[in-house]
Amino acid sequence: DCSYEELINHLNLTSSSDLSITRPVRRWTTPTPVFVDMLLYSIVEVDEKFQTVLSHISVYTRWQNEFLSWTPSDFCGIKLLSVPLSLLWQPDIVIREECVGSSSFQSPLATISADGWVHTTSRHMLTSTCKLNLQMFPFDVQKCNLSFGSMSSSGKKCIFKVQNNDSSQFRVYEQTIVTHGEWALRNISINGCNETRNYFSQSAVIYTITMVRKPLLYVVNFIVPLFYLLVLDVASFFISEARGEKLGFKITVLLSISVLLLILKDILPSTEDNLPMI
C-alpha cells in the first residue's frame, strides 16, 4: 500500500535525521538557488517624521534540496508532501530594511515537490526604513527598497532569484493591493544583485516600490488656506492704520500662518536634507 508514511521513511524525514543541519547539496561547492517572491497586500502607513513604511506582505520562498526527490509513480502518484519545516534545512533570509515594530507569521509546514523543491510561505506586517525625499511635498514620488538576502551565507552558497518578472508581478499587485487613502502604487521593480558585506559577497533580491502621494488632502488643508492668508495679507495694505486695525489684522494673519506651520512641522522630519518647497 502507498502512504505518506512510506514516502517519509523513503526520504528519511524523521526527527533524528540530519537534513536540517547542513545545506542540502551533494557537493559542497554547488550553490543552492533560493527563489523569493513577495506579494504586497497593502501600504498601511508612511511615517515621514521617522522615515518608515508600514506594509502588509506575503513572502513565498522555495529552494532545492538535492536529497528530497522521488519518482511519483513509485508512490501511487504522490507529487507533493507537507512536513514540519523544523525537519528541513532552510535559508536564513532577512529583510535588510526591517526595523523595530514588525511582526510575522511563518507557516509551520513546508511543501516538498517530487523534484526536490521545498516551498514555504510567511506573512509580515513589516515596518521598514525608507529614505524619503520630501522636497516636492505634497506632490512627491517615493521609492522604497525591500532587500531579501542571507544573514550569513555568501553568494557562492546561496543564490537569490525571483520566479516572476517585473511586469507579471506588477499586474498581480494591481489586483491585490489596498492603499489607505494617501498613497497610490505606481510601480514595483525587481533586481538581483551581489553586495559585499562582512568582507564577502552576498546575493540578494531587491524589490523597489514606487509610490505617489495623493495630494488633495494637503492642498485643501494647507495650500488653499495658506493662499487665502497671503491674499488677506496683501489686502491688509489697504486697511486704514487708524485705531490700530491694520496692526491687529496683520497679527491675526501671522498667527494663522504660524498654526499651519506648526501642524506641518509635526508631519515632516527634522532634517536639513531636501527641505520641502512648501
UniProtKB/TrEMBL annotation:
Keywords: Cell membrane, Disulfide bond, Glycoprotein, Ion channel, Ion transport, Ligand-gated ion channel, Membrane, Postsynaptic cell membrane, Receptor, Signal, Synapse, Transmembrane, Transmembrane helix, Transport. GO terms for molecular function: extracellular ligand-gated monoatomic ion channel activity; transmembrane signaling receptor activity. Forms serotonin (5-hydroxytryptamine/5-HT3)-activated cation-selective channel complexes, which when activated cause fast, depolarizing responses in neurons. It catalyses: Ca(2+)(in) = Ca(2+)(out); Na(+)(in) = Na(+)(out); K(+)(in) = K(+)(out). Residues 22-215 form the Neurotransmitter-gated ion-channel ligand-binding domain. Residues 223-278 form the Neurotransmitter-gated ion-channel transmembrane domain. Signal peptide: none annotated. Belongs to the ligand-gated ion channel (TC 1.A.9) family. It comes from Tetraodon nigroviridis. Its main location: membrane. The chain crosses the membrane at residues 216-239, 251-268. It is a multi-pass membrane protein. It is found in: Postsynaptic cell membrane. This is Uncharacterized protein. GO terms for cellular component: postsynaptic membrane. It comes from the Eukaryota. The keyword Membrane applies.
